[in-house]
Amino acid sequence: MTLRKENILIVDDDIHILELLQRHLRSLDYHTFKAVSVKEALFILKDTFIDLLITDIQMPEVDGLQLLKFTNEHYPDIPKLVVTGYPSVTGALETFKSGAVDYLTKPFTKEELRLAVAKAVTNQHGKSQTRKVQKAPTQTKYGDMVGASGSFQKVTNIIDRVKDNKATVLIKGESGTGKELVARAIHYTGKFSRAPFIAVNCGAIPENLQEAELFGYIKGAFTGANENRNGFFQAAQGGTLFLDEIGTASLAVQTKLLRALQEKEITKVGSQKPEKVDIRIIAATNADLMENIKNKDFREDLYYRLTVVEITVPPLRERKSDIPLLVDKFLLKYGVEYKDRLLKISPEALSVLERHHWPGNIRELENSIQRAVIMADGLIGVKDLPDYLKYEIEFPQTGFVPLKVMEKEYVKRVLLHTQGNKTKAAKILQIDRKTLRDKLH
């Protein structure tokens, strides 16, 4: 049985030291990843199982100490080895406080490096096995999704059952809940991940162009068709075609979709010759398709063809325990992108986020964190959050207030959210502008 090579991440802004370390470690039969900055290292840590981190301390923008602290908080089981050309007693103490297991001073010999790495990796083997076993039942990351709530686990359990077959899947959920992320997780975590993944927003394609865009067309099929052209179905051959906002598809397109699902073949616009297709279709909607069926806007037979497997993505208000994990994800993403720093959020600001109802779901949360990162100078506080979140109404812990008072406060909050736009406020409140004006008076 061949043992897996340990993955070692080396971080140093000096390219010569980086290459020297990589050459030594490869000769010692380790697998290495290189990063010339903390920013680059974070992306490797996010997507790769790392057995040992080796980092310099003195680096521009974000230094090695911040990387050590971040790794200690988010990946506590990864041993950390520091290599630096600026040794000092104070620096060594700070390094060990940040979670490093050893400290090498440049220049060092290959034998010193070998001993330090071997010691760190050997001590970690037992812990690594424990980490793998313990993480499985409480998985917090799946594809690009994060969560630990029961509703999140329910979604990932279904993904596990469908990712390695080509059963048709219908994903339901409110706008902003991450339906496309679910579709991408099905595709990219399964055995067809190397095949194409084509995402199509049906609502963004004009109705008169939907058929040509999806199925392709032949030269002369209509005015402007100057050549043969493949559609999204042909582009997704062998892989996955994700049809978002499927409820907006025209009835003509629905008829051809039904045939594609039943017969595994399509016909280009203007052609009489059917073509075989081998793809998995994942559709998504935030609409009530059963209501569309009643209104004769959606084919019932197509609905049942699409719902071989159905996944309902819960709104964020039903999985509030996942908010801290989502906040960490977005802080990492936008902190690195905008500030080249690792930002944190205060407990008070996090409490505000956990209290909010999130009608815009995860997309609204991401936008709020994106804004907060831009506005913050350091630790993200309540002051850095959007105004409509700062002044969130809390129901009193004791006692009650009249309905008119609560209604007044809620209307004020909606107007604050829309920045005084009465049309948008009326739409959110689901009343007409005249009724809103009466309430304002």
Could you please describe the fold and organization of this structure?
- Residues 145-374 form the Sigma-54 factor interaction domain.
- Keywords: ATP-binding, DNA-binding, Nucleotide-binding, Phosphoprotein, Transcription, Transcription regulation.
- It comes from Croceitalea dokdonensis DOKDO 023.
- GO terms for molecular function: ATP binding; sequence-specific DNA binding.
- It holds the Pfam family Sigma54_activat.
- By secondary structure, this protein is of the alpha/beta class.
- It folds into four domains: 7-136, 3-Layer(aba) Sandwich (Rossmann fold), CATH 3.40.50; 142-312, Rossmann fold, CATH 3.40.50; 319-392, Helicase, Ruva Protein, domain 3 (Orthogonal Bundle); 398-441, Arc Repressor Mutant, subunit A, CATH 1.10.10.
- The protein is built from 19 helices and 14 strands.
- It has helices spanning 15-27, 38-47, 64-74, 89-97, 110-135, 150-162, 179-188, 207-215, 232-235, 251-263, 289-294, 300-306, 323-339, 347-355, 361-375, 387-390, 403-417, 422-429, 433-440; strands at 7-11, 31-35, 52-55, 80-84, 102-105, 141-142, 145-146, 169-172, 197-201, 240-244, 265-267, 274-276, 280-285, 309-312.
- It has a five-stranded parallel β-sheet, sandwiched between helices. A five-stranded parallel β-sheet has the order 9-10-13-8-14. Strands 6-7 form a two-stranded antiparallel ribbon.
- Helix 10 crosses helix 12 (300-306) and helix 17 packs across helix 18.
- The protein is globular.
Fill in the keyword field for this structure.
Rossmann fold; 14 strands; 13% strand; alpha/beta; transcription regulation; Helicase, Ruva Protein, domain 3; 4 domains; AAA_lid_NorR; 441 residues
